[in-house]
Design a protein that fits this description.
Layout lengths: L1 H26 L3 H6 L2
């Protein structure tokens, strides 16, 4: 039982990191740079 809870917990943590990292990087771009696609 604890193994499945640990697996779900690790999945949630990895998912949050994988979602936050690109979001933080994108928030640092200026809108014109983000829309230009370069």
């Amino acid at each position: 039982m604890w193994a499945s809870a640990a697996g779900i917990g690790c999945t949630l943590v990895i998912g949050m990191i994988a979602g936050l990292y690109p979001a933080v990087r994108a928030s640092r771009l200026s809108p014109t740079e983000a829309l230009s696609g370069s």
